[in-house]
Amino acid sequence: MLKSKLSAVCLGLTLLCPGFGSALDAAAEQAKTGGANVSGISVHRILPSDTDERINTFTGNGYDDWAWFDPGSQEKRSELIVFLPGTGSRGKGSAPFNKQAAQWGFHVVSIAYPDKISISHFGKSADPDVFTKARMNIITGKVQFRKLGVNEANSIENRIAALLQYLATHFPQEQWSQFLDEHHALRWGKVILAGQSQGGGHAAIMAMKLHQVARVLMFGSPKDFNRRLNRPAKWYSEGSLTPMDRFFAFNHTGDNSNGCTYPQQLRNYRAMGLMPKYSIVNVDQASPPYGHTRLLTSEMPPKGASAHSAPLHDTRYTQAWRYLLEEPVQ
């Protein structure tokens, strides 16, 4: 058994990379996650603890990092999508979205991280800073918070850096090193932070409080709404390192749980300053460029997904995904 639990399939090119399981098992896994029919795309499945031996939680038992790269894409973006899945997703994210983004020329990674506890768990706290404290523990691990108990090695930020260093070392031909500086730290200006549900909130607060990034995509998020205080999370209105015109959200009108209702979601947008500057545009009734808004919605009955996850997983929204990734920003 190889130490690395890495399963890589270069579909269409029939290129096998050393890793976990047989080619048949890897192909079956990709079929399950929506990538089996992708021609020529490298898909790497990597055990987080193989990227950094200090990572000792949320690794294995389905908690894997994923990476997507299309060597044949005619569109070379020189941008890295770092995707943060929702609660309990174990790193998988959305294979249809990741596949499509790779075909459009982006490098894509989806990160496994400590995601068992929903951030909505803290929505009844009297502490106005509770969401910030919880998220910063998971993202940086520098300050402990309640029972989350994430340390720096197991934090989101360390996992991202460790995965990129691993990919740059093991797959140099795929040019992952372009996203690392001379000190092997991330070049955040080349990063698109994206996420769904809990992960979308992590992406947003990272871009607002920690790093200036190329853009932010929030699917089914951000959902931080304090139900006890009846107001959006405090961190939305505390300023942003990343210009707000780089933030994009896509939420379904039927998404009325997982932290807040749809009307409360609109209050979150206002707290961030996205409304009233940008209008809500229903993608069911409009075409790109959607009035150049940053706020998309849909009323279509979900197909194969809940209203909460449909904006990310439903391939009927492919042209909306492309808009979110390509609409010019400052």
What does this structure look like?
By secondary structure, this protein is of the alpha/beta class. Helix content is 26%, strand content 16%. It has helices at residues 23-33, 48-51, 95-103, 130-140, 156-170, 198-209, 262-272, 310-313, 318-326, and strands at residues 7-10, 15-17, 42-46, 65-69, 80-84, 107-110, 191-196, 215-219, 225-226, 231-232, 247-252, 280-282, 295-298. An eleven-stranded mixed sheet has the order 2-1-3-4-6-5-7-8-11-13-12, sandwiched between helices. Strands 9-10 form a two-stranded antiparallel ribbon. It is globular, with a radius of gyration of 19 Å.
- Structural class call reads alpha/beta
Low-confidence stretches: 1-38
Helical proportion, percent range: 25-40%
Q: Say how many strands there are.
A: 13
Oligomeric state: single chain
Shape by Cα distribution:
globular
H/E topology pattern: EEHEHEEHEHHEHEEEEHEEHH
Give a short account of the largest sheet.
Answer: 11 strands, mixed
What does the average pLDDT come to? 89
Determine the strand fraction and express it as a percent band: 15-25%
N- and C-termini, Cα separation? 49 Å
Note the total helix count. Answer: 9
| Radius of gyration, whole Å | 19 Å
Strand order of the largest sheet: 2-1-3-4-6-5-7-8-11-13-12
